[in-house]
Amino acid sequence: MLVRLACHEDLPVLAQIHISAWQTAYKGMISPEVLDAIDIKHALTRLKPAMERPNTQVFVLEDHGEVRGFCRIGPSREQDVPPDTGEVFAINVAPSHWRKGYGKILLREVVSTMRMDGYQAITLWVLNDNHRALRFYEQLGFSADGATRVEAADSDWPLHEQRLQRLLHGQ
């Protein structure tokens, strides 16, 4: 297995992974209309600019030459955390490859990279109802830091999220 920086040639497969991961992971948590509306154009509209932002990196995990997942990281967007805090903006693994260790390998490599880049902590946001993801992150040393938010609060499907954090110094 290989974890490397993503390149523009990876965008089509990253978009497919994004779509399938969201439609599988968030079924019953996010509006079916929203999930059904996620298509290649939508995914590329989100992913391409993300790859071009300064201080943001997108890593992919390859197995036998095939991209199985990706993770996008950078400085935290939150104002209530120290400036040496990084953030995992997205981590997606193709659902057909869940529970095979790909996500752990990818996130461990990202944590190592962020530590080498001088970050002292990493945060990420996760839906309260996404128990599978919560267990995954907790196994890798993340825990709730008390911050919460509600996305799409005015909709029929408000998204209640909590922020998880992992300290990096001394680990």
Overall description:
The chain is an alpha+beta fold and 171 residues long. The protein has a single domain, classed as Aminopeptidase (3-Layer(aba) Sandwich). The protein has helices at 11-25, 32-37, 40-52, 102-116, 131-139; strands at residues 2-5, 57-63, 66-75, 85-93, 121-127, 143-151, 159-167. A seven-stranded mixed sheet has the order 1-2-3-4-5-7-6. Helix 4 (102-116) links the parallel strand 4 (85-93) and strand 5. The protein is globular. The model has no long low-confidence stretch (mean pLDDT 92).
Write the layout of secondary structure elements.
Blueprint: E1 2-5, H1 11-25, H2 32-37, H3 40-52, E2 57-63, E3 66-75, E4 85-93, H4 102-116, E5 121-127, H5 131-139, E6 143-151, E7 159-167
Parallel strand pairs: 4-5
Antiparallel strand pairs: 1-2, 2-3, 3-4, 5-7, 6-7
Strand order within the widest beta sheet = 1-2-3-4-5-7-6
Number of strands: 7
Number of helices: 5
Beta-strand level of the residues, as a percent range? 25-35%
- N/C terminus separation: 24 Å
Summed over residues and divided by their number, the pLDDT gives a mean of 92
- Point out poorly predicted stretches: none
User: What is the gyration radius calculated from CA atoms?
Assistant: 15 Å
CATH arch. level architecture: 3-Layer(aba) Sandwich
Could you give me the name of the CATH homologous superfamily?
Gcn5-related N-acetyltransferase (GNAT)
Largest sheet: 7 strands, mixed
CATH topology: Aminopeptidase
- Approximately how much helix is present in the residues? 25-40%
Overall spatial form: globular
